[in-house]
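REQUEST ID: PR-0412
SUBMITTED BY: lab tech R.K.
PRIORITY: routine
TASK: structure prediction, single protein chain
INPUT:
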Amino acid sequence: MTAKQRSERQNEPREGHTVWGEMTGLPISGLSSSNERDWLCTVVDISAHKATEKKLQRSLRLEVLGELAGGVALDFNAAARQNRPAGGAIRDAVSARHWHPDGPGDSR
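STATUS: complete
OUTPUT:
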């Protein structure tokens, strides 16, 4: 005897919303006198389960994106800390020339 078979199918009826169904079929024998195989089938609406799966996948993608952004921020801050001494030297050089971009002492 063949084992039961299971499949999922997405349908879009005229109303426009997607309906997911899971069909399980079990071959049975002895119902008819012909050589054709008879099947006992059930169909279950799994739309809510699929919607939950989709939300979980979206949440996981956002989590990965957040981790990536956090890593970029850490790398940026590390690079900024390494360049801080150079920033101080530039500030000292600008102060020595008495130049300020907003003030009247602009001596470019």
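NOTES: Residues 34 and 101 are 96 Å apart (CA to CA).
REVIEWED BY: pending
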